[in-house]
Amino acid sequence: MKKPWAGRFKEKTADIVEDFTESVSFDWRLWPYDVEGSIAHARMLARQSIIKRDEANTIIEGLREIAGEIASGRFRWDRKLEDVHMNIETALIRKVGAVGGKLHTARSRNDQVALDTRLYLREESRAVTRLVTKFGKVLLRLAKKHINTAMPGYTHLQRAQPVSFSHHLLAYVEMLQRDRERLEDAMKRINTLPLGACALAGTTLPTDRTYLAGLLKFERIAENSMDAVSDRDFVIEFLSAGAILMMHLSRMAEELVLWSTDEFSFVELPDAYTTGSSIMPQKKNPDVAELIRGKTGRVYGSLVSLLTIMKGLPLTYNRDMQEDKEPLFDTVDTLKGVLAMLVALFPRIKVRKDRLEKALHGGYMLATDLAEYLVLRGLPFRDAHDATGRIVRHAVEKGVALRELSLEEMRGFSPLIDEDVFEVLGVEDSLRRRKSRGGTSPDEVKRQIQRLEKSI
Fold it and tell me: At a CB cut-off of 8 Å and minimum separation 6, what does 286 contact?
């Protein structure tokens, strides 16, 4: 089979080279965008009288027939034709004759693949963004049910201060909000038209890139033809946003793994979203959460892979850039799969309020409340911190909770302590008093939920 670029060559391409250089085995996924871009390009060529109107109509009809064949599974991809672009163009020429060869006028595969990738990523980035929003709403619904459910907050994985379970969930909602903002902001760079840059230098033909941008709904036009075909920073930016998103989801998955252990038992995962052991009959493993944690490495790897591919390339297009597709496709698939899984899983998680309440005892989590009590009595915070630390040490040595100490014992460490000290040594009181903006009091958590519901 003669290749579209074969005119310059005397020898047939070696089979091993064809196998090594082909990309249609994975870039076939770009076919809807390749067809869409080609139809727009044909319309522009006719509008500019570069080809005839009836020729453009013949090309467009042929492209639509090919699209139907691909969608129905009847189209046969040929690895010898290298990529999705040459497969479709060759099929078009077979279908409509020599006029099909006019489609590639005033374009190169360099700007064609950049266009296809942008069209693909524009659609998939919006799909990922919708899933991020959907998951945020799932977490908000769960948070609304647990405004008054107290749990230990942790630093260094040590019990630190009591917080509401709702407040803990809202921390992830805030992270997801920023993830969504990053994806939306990256769309400005994705939604830029490269078509018309041709190989690297533009064309002598009277093309109309503004018309193309309107047809394909691009907000901007790549203003430098060399830049248009030689960079993939818009892909890298998406992968970066995806890596940050996966980092947040991985942290959440890690907490599900911890919380579902017998040691914590804060939550119970549904049977339908866990697996068992092939040897230990009692096991109920959080494999879904573990896989989310593990798949984060794939997305990180995709980002590092493309950064490494691009870091040493001279302008303009180099074949190395073919290697951007598989990391991008894999990241999109991973993000969509993980988010869809979390959307399905979280409404079925059972929160173990009894275990959360039990975990609130011990750990002296109200020590900061006691220190702040002393601050309100006029003691400098550092002195209050020291006095409270000595009270905690005394309680530890006695093996009792802070509120189990007598007033006389506590006054031995600071004469500022009075009978009302016991009012600050209860979990519910502690939560209620933390009304600072962004704090964990029920009233403040309700305000946060209302704000997030509006923004989401």
Answer: 256, 257, 260, 269, 274
Token look-up 């702040």 returns: 372
**Straight-line distance from the first to the last Cα atom of the chain, in angstroms, rounded to the nearest whole number:** 54
Which positions are annotated as active-site residues?
Answer: 156, 277
**Which stretch of DSSP H or E encloses residue 249?**
helix 233-259
Whole-prediction pTM: 0.94
Place of tokens 């992270």: 175
> Residue 104: left (phi > 0), alpha (psi -120 to 50), or beta?
alpha
CA distance 431 to 149: 10
- The percent of the chain in helix, strand and coil, each rounded to the nearest 5, is 65, 5, 30
Q: Are 115 and 193 in contact (CB under 8 A)?
A: yes
Residues 6 or more apart from 68 whose CB is under 8 A from it? none
pLDDT in tens, the chain (456 residues): 667 767 777 788 888 998 899 999 999 999 999 999 999 999 999 999 999 999 999 999 999 999 999 999 999 999 999 999 999 999 999 999 999 999 999 999 999 999 999 999 999 999 999 999 999 999 999 999 999 999 999 999 999 999 999 999 999 999 999 999 999 999 999 999 999 999 999 999 999 999 999 999 999 999 999 999 999 999 999 999 999 999 999 999 999 999 999 999 999 999 999 999 999 999 999 999 999 999 999 999 999 999 999 999 999 999 999 999 999 999 999 999 999 999 999 999 999 999 999 999 888 999 999 999 999 999 999 999 999 999 999 999 999 999 999 999 999 999 999 999 999 999 998 999 999 999 999 999 999 999 999 998
